[in-house]
Amino acid sequence: MSEIKVSALNLVPVKSGEDEKQAIDNMVDLAQHLDELGYERYWIAEHHNAPNLVSSATALLIQHTLEHTKNIRVGSGGIMLPNHAPLVVAEQFGTLETMFKNRVDLGLGRAPGTDMMTASALRRDQHNGVYAFPEEVAQLQKYFGPENQQGYVRAYPAVDKNVPLYILGSSTDSAHLAARMGLPYVFAGHFAPQQMREAMSIYKELFEPSEVLDKPYMIVCLNAIVAETDQEAEKLATTLAQVTVSITRGRMEALQPPIDNLADVLTPAELQMAKGRLGVSLVGSEETVKQQIEKFMDIYGEFDELMAISYIYDQEKQKESFERLQRVMKQVRK
Fold this sequence. Notes:
This protein has helices at 20-37, 58-67, 86-99, 116-121, 126-131, 133-143, 173-181, 196-206, 230-236, 238-249, 268-278, 286-300, 315-329, and strands at residues 5-10, 41-44, 73-80, 104-109, 165-169, 185-188, 218-226, 282-284, 305-309. The protein is α/β, with parallel strands linked by helices. Strand 1, helix 1 and strand 2 form a beta-alpha-beta unit.
C-alpha cells in the first residue's frame, strides 16, 4: 500500500471583474500555497486565442512560477508539440533546468491546443505536427540526453539535462505511445473522460520498461472541488459548470462567480451536459470526495498521482479546496 501523490494543473483563467495581470498573480499565489503544502508538482497548460485564459506563453509562466516558489516541481500540462520546433522546446526547458535544477517537468501534447486557423498562424503545419509527434518526442529525448548521443545540431544548454518528459492524452492514441516509449502517462479526465478507462488499461498492459521507468506511472487529471460540506462544494462547482457551457457556446467567457441555481442561466440541455461533466469530477466534502476517489479506482483502476484542476472563483476557497484535497489523498492508498 502506497500513498497517491497529489499535484495541480492551472490554465490561468481570467476571473470576471479582474484582468490578465491579476490572473497571473493568482497563478503565483496558488503555486506558493501548494509549495508550502508540499504538493508534488504544479503544471501550466498551453492555450492560444482564448481571451479567458492567460496561458499562451507557457514557458514564461513556468519560469515566473519557479522564480516565486522554492520546492514544488513546475512544468507544462502541456506544451503542444505541433506548435513548436523540438529544438526550441529543448533550448527553453534546458535553460529552465539549468536555472532551477531538478524542478522542471515537460508534459507534451499532440494537439495544437487551439482552433485550426490559430494553429496555422503559429507557423507550423498542424497536420504534419500531429503525425510527427512520436518522432519529435524521441528527438526531445535525444536533445536532453548525453553528449555522446548528440548529432550535429545540439540544443544547448539542454544537453545531458535529462528533463523528464510526460505524455499527455485525451484518447487512447497517446496511451499506446507512452507505453511503447516507457514514459509516464497523463490522462485529461477533467475534460475528456470518455476513453479514460480504456486508455489507462492500454497504458498499463502494453507498458515497456525503459531507462526512465521500470513500471507504468499513471497520472490522472480531474476536476476537484472540496469544501466543508457537499452543499458548499456543489455551489462552488457552479462556476465549473458555467465554464463548461461557455466553451460549448464558443464564448470563452471569464470565470464567473458561483450561483444558487444553474437553471437560471443554462438551458435544460446545457444543464444536463454540465451535470454529466460533474459526474466524473471530485466534488463534495472531504468524506464524500474520499468515497468518490475510491469509487473511481474501482471503476477505472489504480493510478500513481492525482493532478487536480479547480475552477473556483474565490481565491481563498480555491486554496482551501486544495488543502482539503491533500488531506483526503493522505487517507487513500493504492
